[in-house]
């Protein structure tokens, strides 16, 4: 797995093998970030990479000009891996890695975020509660299925890449954090 574009383009990111982690593939990351770039959503952005795994999504955002990123991962060994990947790319000074349960952490740290990257295990199904507690200008959801409309969020775009479905969401009224729970 490599950083697709930006200042860290081509650098190889470390990823664990066989422990249930599912890093976002290069092709999917490239398509997602090309769409985000066309919206002006990355350069200078504050980014939340929730359910961070290897950190590939947040690192791609930093490589493409995001100002800062917070990576939230419940596994200490995966968080250590994210820190290694950040150091490899030279982004440690613009990043924070938090070891915590994503939903619990989000209750106390809802935002505001310019961009939130949500890539939980495919079995995750508590999208309404998660999205209700998030204050973000744009949200990227990666799952194995499309999301039902979440209260307070507008579906901007849905794309399928083999077994991965990527959904871009924005607050319904354009004002992050003002959507009803």
UniProtKB/TrEMBL annotation:
SUPFAM superfamilies: S-adenosyl-L-methionine-dependent methyltransferases
Keyword Protein biosynthesis (UniProt): no
Entry's Gene Ontology BP terms: rRNA methylation
Name of the protein this chain belongs to: 16S rRNA (Guanine(966)-N(2))-methyltransferase RsmD
UniProt keyword terms in alphabetical order: Methyltransferase, Transferase
InterPro entries in UniProt: RNA_MeTrfase_RsmD, SAM-dependent_MTases_sf
GO molecular function: methyltransferase activity
Coiled-coil annotated spans: none
Transmembrane spans: none
Originating organism: marine metagenome
Gene3D superfamilies: Vaccinia Virus protein VP39
């Amino acid at each position: 797995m490599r950083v697709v574009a930006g200042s860290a383009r081509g650098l190889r990111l470390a990823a664990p093998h066989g422990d249930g982690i599912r890093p976002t593939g290069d092709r999917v990351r490239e398509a997602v970030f090309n769409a985000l770039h066309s919206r002006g959503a990355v350069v200078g952005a504050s980014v939340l990479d929730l359910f961070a795994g290897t950190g590939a999504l947040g690192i791609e955002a930093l490589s493409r000009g995001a100002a800062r990123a917070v990576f939230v991962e419940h596994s200490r060994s995966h968080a250590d891996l994210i820190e290694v990947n950040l150091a490899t790319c030279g982004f440690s000074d613009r990043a924070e890695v938090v070891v915590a349960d994503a939903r619990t952490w989000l209750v106390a740290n809802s935002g505001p975020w310019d961009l939130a990257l949500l890539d939980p295990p495919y079995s995750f199904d508590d999208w309404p509660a998660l999205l209700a507690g998030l204050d973000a200008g744009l949200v990227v959801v990666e799952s194995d299925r499309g999301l039902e409309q979440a209260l307070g969020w507008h579906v901007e775009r849905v794309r399928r890449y083999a077994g991965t479905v990527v959904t871009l969401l924005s607050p319904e009224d354009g004002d992050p954090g003002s959507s009803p729970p």
